[in-house]
Design brief:
Structural class of chain A: alpha/beta
Bound molecules: adenosine monophosphate, magnesium ion
Oligomer: homooctamer
CATH architecture of the largest domain in chain A: 3-Layer(aba) Sandwich
Largest interface: B-C, 35 and 35 residues
Radius of gyration of chain A: 18 Å
Distance between the termini of chain A: 23 Å
CATH topology of the largest domain in chain A: Rossmann fold
Order of helices and strands of chain A: EHEHEEEHEHHEHEHEH
Chain lengths: ~220, ~220, ~220, ~220, ~220, ~220, ~220, ~220
């Protein structure tokens, strides 16, 4: 692992066989591998190859997030003294948020999921003020107009990483309005690309690692 | 006037003299004229021409909104039994909101200005709930990420017209993110073009006229 | 229902099962649900789930508009004293117009459909002048160059909501030229996103509600 | 002249002196020159150079269209038996339409100007039906939503050349919506670039030449 | 037929059945119909419906151009004394050029096809100088950089209509570079939208009709 | 101050007088104010107003970064036990980096500037490995192709915030290529908008505050 | 062959049969043909047609690069005294790089493949300094942020041709960020379109031919 | 100098003083400096600083190309046995071509200028066939539709570097159509950014150096 981030393989644009080979190498050298954007054929290929090569290895998948984690039996996952909130505006944000959650789990952070608090009904997010303020760092995912990170960043002191999601149609659809709105936010926050759940999760994990290290000193 | 909307002249792209001629014709035929995007030279030219031609005419200007209203002495402005809220997220929305206000005033609506309630500090807009809910129709102006109309439309039952404003820099700047976000809104609302304060005001005025007429029957 | 608008579920990007669950909840709590962008599998799943759970519930679908309405037996739809015209330029505008009609029907408005009056043959829309002027509020749908709302708004006193439709190919295709043209319109009107029939219908419904309430006072 | 089109020099991006030299060469070799986008300094420089070099030459300018025509005393302009209508939606279309008119005049066509017939008030263009139908070929200039060429092309049998004009602000401003709308038109027409009055005029002139030639045989 | 242009039905976005109904109506009222963008199912549906309803009707299709012409037995196609050249840069321009040819054939023009004369090998187009100069009006189709219309318009006196074609990949692909290049052309020409073979053909047909009429007087 | 971030006023789009008023209010209520994008007239107006109203207040400016800090005599700036590196690719990145530095100074972080290490000469950044690895969090500013953040994030374990800068001309100029490249980065990092030095600085400051707090516990 | 470049047929947008015909003609007239973007059906069709028509012809394919080379038995490939490096950032660049390699092989250059040296791990490319400096001309392929060509061009004296690849998602995805970054590069290099492996290979081949010719004199 | 390319300073976005300092350093360490995009104040500042610091230094400027070369008295410019053609379509291409010429002169290449051979009059470029074929490498500059590089690359065997120029207005103006057309070219060529004369010149210089070196072995 570089920077404590698990070796990640983006399955999109790779054959199932190529992905499986890369997973095997990572499991054998670093003890685990994370696959993103995995379809059924990829999951199948990885399972077959890992089962054949590494005794007692485990392969866990999350269908909605389209992630897969392969782990050697000896691998000891890290554990951080840091809390990350993963917040979503609606159900269509689940896949991107799930990708973020998968990498955060591998990095050892404590994760709080706060779902379905989109700003069209402002009371839902206001009701979560305590849960939001408990986090050391937050990922806030939203599609369409993507206004939720701006509101959340106005409610907490911790850093917020905004994750635009490719939902919506017409002008500004497919995450464009959300990305633009987050980059234009009147609140202080930083942004990752549309649907880049892996990047959001890993960046939040790096902040969590730094806080964990500071707490241990 | 067509549809009860005052004859409006967009000074941008016209010489002061051309604008002044058009104002004069409108004052003489309909009793008044509204100029938008008026610079100093235009104001000067209109004043001179109107003073010379129409005894006791009045010329009122709003420097910030860059509007001018010329009125013949006999002209009786309409008065509607309907209330329009004009809401802004921040001070940079003042010019566009002022253009909307100018046309609404001419159409005879009762106008409530609710300013500086941008969503980065969500309490400010929540504190205005009563004022917002008192309106028959609302114009909500916002620049940068333009999230305010979505939040307001979630708080009221009346129709909301969203007015994107050309502030902000970088990707999505100059009102692009705001326009896209409003078109993608998870709340129900309709939209006008960037900085189109006149259109927002006139459209709200048409709704106010319809409500006024219904109230009188 | 919030603001008198039926609970609406956008089936695009949801599994049939997810949509069916959301429909069931809405029917049980608010008495009905509206699904937009429903494909065959979604219709099937909703029917099965609703039939099993709610005795005597009805499920109505409109294949062209891709909408579905589920209703509990006890549910009493509202009825408004207000008339909404839904106008289309051509047959390709039928789906978007149908989505608008579906929500307006649920909100209780009286609906007039005026079809196939695109401006390339200007006499067709001129012949409908009386029908157009009878409406309290109008939705005008058009694709390609999207000029119809501008012409209609010049013919009536009531507010016009312009609905751009994703037809056309090449530069400005897929509704882009129509959206841009409507935002640039020389007539006063407000706009919703490309193919946002639901939003156009609900916004017109809010205006109709306001007029209905004013008429009743 | 190539194709009967006068030698044209686009002054934009040239120094006054460069333009003046090119004009002189054209006057000396072809008897005349047309300058487009000429500012005051260019007009001054051309006048000085031409007066000094060519006895009895004439230099005519059109301030609004920003065109200049220099002509040797012996030059005999052509005369075509063909009629071109140059139609505008509003006053902001005057510059582009003037550029078209300037080149048509040099090509010898009979020109009918039909102004201020924008579609927001549809009766104005309907009132010109006879004038429009009298033309052998039409140029129709419009900015903002640019809908006029579509309506005109539905009213006449002759070919229509659509000329988008750079007016309007916000999304689709500066002629973008007009260009896109004309390319998407439901009527049959062909298009030139934004503000390309010279090209529209020359293309109409080529059609007029062909008709003139056919009439003479 | 309006303006001598056959009633044309764009099959894209219509069901085979809808297209077939529209064809039938057109054949019954105007004697013929032209379908563009017809797939196999549409051809099948039209054939079945027309055969059943109109005795001795003919249905002709062009697979490459994806066009279909249905004609009543009594229909007498027009014949124009005018010659139109349809020029292509390469084989990928065949579909768009074929659409143009189909409408020209219905309008009665004499058509010269000049194929495969793209400018990367400049001698090919130079070798066709005589054939090009024989035309009364030209359609020039090109994809990728779309430079052919510029070169051809520099070789002939007749008007040129440029037809950009959606070939090419990467930046400017799908006809964007071709459209932009044609609108920026240093030669005089007018343009239609990407792949708008029908519009190019009908516009050339209108010019041909005007020349034909002039020749007959 | 909200979240420990000094009250910041974006002078762009405000009159000097408006900015001065806002500064005064902030100094009086929070003890200080930060102005960004300040021109000479703004600096002058702020100085005059602050000097007149607050005895012994200080006003410091940075001409290159176009920032101004006004401070009441009693104000005690915070001091954080955390180290932020501000890294630039070239001299044109100085203004944006200076804006980030100004806010970080107000938040009390220890700041390391590492300048002129653009990747076209890769040895320069490699030579700074130790300095880069000493930071708790890094801001990396770059214009044109914006590749530096990707390389730096591959060299350190701490979180990297990428700051695209509006230099460069032609396609992707004005910061567009840099923004896109940072969002597409193969390294893990988060991004702020083009020239958003204030946001980058404040976000890094929030991370520094979190680390400082963890170190103190 | 023109310019020593093998006749190349882009199979995309052609039927297998059309491609096969063009291959046959090229093999018969120039001794060989190169097909790019060949799918299975195309490979099948070409093989069948070539085998039937040209005795002892060979047909070689590269599945990953989607290229096919058909060669007449007598054909003698050229051999150049020049060395071209083909460098990739990651495995997703393999297809584009393979297309470049295929044409370079036909032009007779000596080819060095240097793979998987993306800049997120800067040591990989630094380790290849000697191999990179051995080349007479280099092609550098990269997707996502496309930073590798900039770094490589800073390490060598020979000319670098940058080849952007269509990988990545969200803003700047599909090769857009890579293309923009390469055009904005702080290093000196020239660029081809996204995925234009053939063009990159042929352009490098032209440089190699020039060097080969100079070496032979 | 790196790669034989003179140290180049882009004056745009630097103060005259900053540029002058950078020039001085370059002259003192490498014997010379090249400034691009130099305005009058920059030229003045450089002259003053260089005259004061380096006895007998020379400062040469090219007003049209906006370049400046400062040279120490001892500096011996290189001389290459290689010929580069710099070709322009029209007079507006002079500035970009001049920038390319300036760097090529410093690199020691023999330069042939071939001007005003735009493709709208195809005979002009055909007449230069011999001059074009004499070059070892060519730079071809063109604005508007940018078709000239495609035609030239079809006429020569040497590599062509295409240089798009920011002329033209409307859609595709400011060099966009030219850049897109060159990237889509049906001929083999590579491209630099809009107006990047320096990059085109330096890249051609690198090819010339390679050929020169090969000739000397
Ligand atoms: N979903 C994802 N989004 C963004 N980056 C990813 C994702 N999954 C993997 N990556 C990263 O992409 C980089 C390139 O991946 P690869 O193409 O697998 O070599 C790796 O360094 C991964 O860390
Ligand atoms: N066709 C549609 N267009 C726009 N919005 C819709 C449509 N259908 C449903 N919605 C709204 O989209 C919002 C978010 O939807 P969901 O993703 O289902 O939570 C809901 O509040 C719906 O009212
Ligand atoms: N306003 C204009 N718009 C478009 N083209 C023009 C205009 N004025 C002149 N031209 C044409 O631009 C071409 C190139 O112009 P120049 O740069 O003057 O050589 C000439 O062939 C002119 O016919
Ligand atoms: N006109 C120009 N276009 C593109 N790059 C340039 C130009 N002038 C100088 N450069 C290069 O830009 C790089 C960055 O320049 P600077 O900002 O001066 O450090 C230097 O390596 C120069 O070689
Ligand atoms: Mg959202
Ligand atoms: Mg705002
Ligand atoms: Mg339409
Ligand atoms: Mg108009
Ligand atoms: Mg072509
Ligand atoms: Mg940089
Ligand atoms: Mg890469
Ligand atoms: Mg050119």
């Amino acid at each position: 692992d570089r920077r404590g981030i698990p070796e990640a393989i983006l399955a999109d644009g790779k054959t199932p066989d190529e992905t499986a080979s890369l997973v095997l190498t990572a499991v054998e050298t670093t003890g685990r591998a994370l696959v993103t954007r995995a379809d059924e054929a990829t999951v199948e290929a990885v399972r077959t190859r890992v089962d054949a090569a590494v005794a007692d290895a485990t392969v866990d998948t999350d269908e909605r997030a389209r992630t897969l984690v392969a782990r050697a039996p000896h691998h000891e996952p890290p554990s951080l003294d840091a809390r990350v909130a993963v917040v979503t505006a609606g159900t269509s944000d689940a896949a991107a948020a799930g990708e973020a959650t998968a990498v955060l789990r591998e990095m050892g952070a404590t994760i709080d999921r706060i779902d379905d608090v989109g700003v069209a009904n402002i009371n839902r997010v206001l009701d979560q003020r305590e849960a939001l303020r408990a986090a050391d760092v937050l990922i806030v995912a939203a599609g369409r107009e993507g206004a939720l990170p701006t509101v959340v960043a106005g409610m907490v002191d911790a850093p917020v990483i905004a994750l635009p999601v490719s939902v919506g149609y017409g002008y500004g659809g497919e995450g464009d309005a959300a990305l633009a709105g987050m980059l234009q936010s009147c609140s202080v926050l930083s942004v990752v690309n549309v649907d880049a759940g892996f990047v959001a999760g890993a960046q939040a994990g790096l902040v969590a690692q730094a806080i964990d290290a500071a707490r241990r000193t």
